[in-house]
Amino acid sequence: MKDLLRTADLSRADVDLLLDTAADFAKTPLRSTDVLANRTVAIYMTKPSTRTRLASETAVAHLGGTPVFLREDDLQIGRGETIADTARIISGFASALIIRTFKQSDVNELGQWATIPVLNGLTDDDHPTQLLADWATIREVFGTDIAGRKFTYVGDGNNMAHAWLTMGAILGAHVVAATPSGKWAPDAGAIASAQAIAATTGGKVEVTNDPEAAAKGASVIYTDVWMSMGDPENERKEKLKALSPFAVTENLMSLSAKDSIFMHCLPAHRGEEVEASVIDGERSVIWREAYHRRTTIQACLYHLVRGELAGRA
């Protein structure tokens, strides 16, 4: 497997390998500084970023490499150069490419034409590196034995909902997404893909419009912002109204398991998708979760440049 373009590209063995390596990098960040020594990694972002940029540049540096950060106006794509040509050029200079952008099709095309590994740092459809960070955190808290546990996402049926269901399915977990119906529900194709994976791993994928039922007995309550980058501003009022029943409140958390944790991919809007007392409370693991953005991107680069990920059969 040359690239990590989608969460669904990963096999269970790949995820286990990446999470084990991330755990090692959490303990010893500089244990593999020769992997990218005297090499560069291009980091191309058309969406603003705090965690992905910091995590990516730090991960490259910890592997001994030099990150080269590129915005959209730093390249000639905006003036008509094709993605295929851009992929070929970057491949001639860098040893890997991390991209954070809007269209999944752009990431797929870069992967098609680049001769170096391409790592998806976020698209409108998916967010594989975030889910690896999430599960690195979950394993620190609960270990690898997740039998009998439920992992619940509550909120907008966006790229995070898609990735949440997919990664849970890969790991054979019981995962739930509680979202509004209609235009802010998860994509039907993403749900079907996750369910198909779960059928082969023993996982269970549920989608519901009932946040309280989803939260009941859950080991994790997870949410994301309600207005994502690129969402039409003229839909704000309608969207916030539709999502208001899905806010993570103290009451919702009280329905979860006694040892449950709260997770959020950040940035957060306290008072919208989550109460301040929840995100800043004792059950919240958001800072450790954010820290693992670095360890897991570092693990992805480590194994991709060494050609050690198999991908799904």
| Assembly level | single chain
User: In what range is the share of β-strand residues?
Assistant: 5-15%
- Global structural class: alpha/beta
Strand order of the largest sheet: 7-6-5-8-9
* Distance from first to last alpha carbon: 10 Å
Q: List low-pLDDT spans.
A: none
Structure description:
- The chain is α/β, with parallel strands linked by helices.
- It has two domains: 7-127 and 291-305, Aspartate/ornithine carbamoyltransferase (Rossmann fold, 3-Layer(aba) Sandwich); 130-290, Rossmann fold.
- The protein is 42% helix and 14% strand.
- The strands form two sheets. Strands 7-6-5-8-9 form a five-stranded parallel β-sheet.
- Helix 2 (51-62) links the parallel strand 1 and strand 2.
- Helix 1 (12-27) packs across helix 5.
- The N and C termini lie close together (10 Å).
- The model has no long low-confidence stretch (mean pLDDT 97).
Short description:
The chain is of the alpha/beta class.
Please specify the SSE layout and strand pairing:
Elements: H1 12-27, E1 40-45, H2 51-62, E2 66-71, H3 83-93, E3 96-100, H4 104-113, E4 118-122, H5 128-142, E5 150-154, H6 159-170, E6 174-178, H7 188-201, E7 204-208, H8 211-215, E8 220-223, H9 236-243, H10 250-254, E9 261-264, H11 276-279, H12 286-305
Helix pairs in contact: 1-5, 1-12, 2-12, 3-4, 5-6, 5-12, 6-7
Please describe the structure with a list of short key phrases separated by commas or semicolons.
313 residues, alpha/beta, Rossmann fold, 2 domains, five-stranded parallel sheet, 9 strands, 14% strand
